[in-house]
Automatic annotation (TrEMBL):
<feature type="domain" description="Cadherin">
    <location>
        <begin position="44"/>
        <end position="145"/>
    </location>
</feature>
<dbReference type="GO" id="GO:0007156">
    <property type="term" value="P:homophilic cell adhesion via plasma membrane adhesion molecules"/>
</dbReference>
<dbReference type="Pfam" id="PF00028">
    <property type="entry name" value="Cadherin"/>
</dbReference>
<dbReference type="InterPro" id="IPR015919">
    <property type="entry name" value="Cadherin-like_sf"/>
</dbReference>
<keyword id="KW-0106">Calcium</keyword>
<dbReference type="GO" id="GO:0005509">
    <property type="term" value="F:calcium ion binding"/>
</dbReference>
<dbReference type="GO" id="GO:0005886">
    <property type="term" value="C:plasma membrane"/>
</dbReference>
<dbReference type="GO" id="GO:0009653">
    <property type="term" value="P:anatomical structure morphogenesis"/>
</dbReference>
<keyword id="KW-0130">Cell adhesion</keyword>
<keyword id="KW-1133">Transmembrane helix</keyword>
<dbReference type="GO" id="GO:0005911">
    <property type="term" value="C:cell-cell junction"/>
</dbReference>
<feature type="domain" description="Cadherin">
    <location>
        <begin position="146"/>
        <end position="227"/>
    </location>
</feature>
<dbReference type="InterPro" id="IPR020894">
    <property type="entry name" value="Cadherin_CS"/>
</dbReference>
<dbReference type="InterPro" id="IPR002126">
    <property type="entry name" value="Cadherin-like_dom"/>
</dbReference>
<feature type="transmembrane region" description="Helical">
    <location>
        <begin position="12"/>
        <end position="33"/>
    </location>
</feature>
<protein>
    <recommendedName>
        <fullName>Cadherin domain-containing protein</fullName>
    </recommendedName>
</protein>
<keyword id="KW-0812">Transmembrane</keyword>
Length: 255
């Protein structure tokens, strides 16, 4: 874009007007150019941070470099990004729009927060500013059960509402993507489904219906599922509950 060189044009206009003898007009024009020259003020960068999703595709929008130019007629600006972490991004030098150049990986990078530099220039001034990039975690890890297996022996006279065991699954993601919910997916035999419940938040498995060694099944296989915020991210495990006869429990002698 064409930009007027104020000093040069002011000089030539002064010379031309002096030669023509129009000194009064020369003074007015000089004042006009001096005023125009003083109007070119320093622009500033108003962006302080940017949040970018970890799974944002390459070439997709990441954030916009926001600026403020106090000039009555803002000057055209040139935009740049700097720093070792700037390799993740591409900056359009004319618009300040920043897009993804290489995939982000939150789990391996300073807990998902790092800095890059922003540089903005007009014809006369260059300003710079460091901002924080906050990488929003993508739900790309499935929960994994720990302290397995979960197999227990339960006497048939165990009181209702007794916690038989607790399952625990850990997710490598962070934030809402790491919140694990538990559910009993299935029970074999199927009539055992009414005997057990699970706390969806802490994984406690409770007995809610009386067991019987003689009239009901002597074992139950529970398929417990751990799910995170995305339905596609889940993991299941089988747990065995064996029913012990009351008499066996009374006369059992430990070795």
């Amino acid at each position: 874009m064409f930009k007027l060189n104020v000093k040069r044009y002011q000089y030539y206009c002064k010379v031309g007007l002096i030669l023509l003898g129009l000194t009064g007009y020369m003074m007015k024009l000089s004042l006009l150019f001096s005023t125009a020259q003083s109007q070119n003020q320093i622009p500033s960068i108003t962006t302080s941070y940017a949040q970018v999703k970890e799974d944002t595709p390459i070439n997709e929008y990441a954030f916009q470099i926001e600026t403020f130019d106090p000039d009555p007629v803002p000057d055209p600006l040139t935009y740049m990004i700097t720093g070792t972490k700037s390799i993740y991004f591409y900056c359009d030098e004319n618009t300040g729009t920043v897009t993804i150049r290489t995939p982000l990986e939150r789990d391996d990078d300073d807990k998902g927060v790092f800095s890059i530099g922003l540089v903005v220039s007009d014809a006369d001034y260059t300003v710079s500013k460091d901002i924080q990039i906050i990488v929003i975690d993508a739900n790309d890890n499935q929960p994994i059960f720990e302290n397995t297996p979960y197999n227990v022996n339960v006497t048939e006279n165990t009181a209702l509402d007794t916690v038989l065991f607790r399952v625990y699954a850990k997710d490598a993601d962070a934030g809402l993507a790491a919140v694990v919910k538990y559910s009993i997916d299935e029970v074999s035999p199927t009539n055992g489904l009414s005997h057990f419940t699970i706390n969806e938040n802490n994984g406690d498995v409770k007995l809610v219906k009386q067991l019987s060694f003689t009239s009901l099944s002597t074992f139950y296989r529970l398929k417990i599922k751990a799910t995170v915020s995305s339905p596609s991210q889940h993991f299941s495990i089988h747990c065995w509950i064996f029913t012990s006869h009351l008499l066996e429990a009374l006369f059992w002698i430990p070795h």
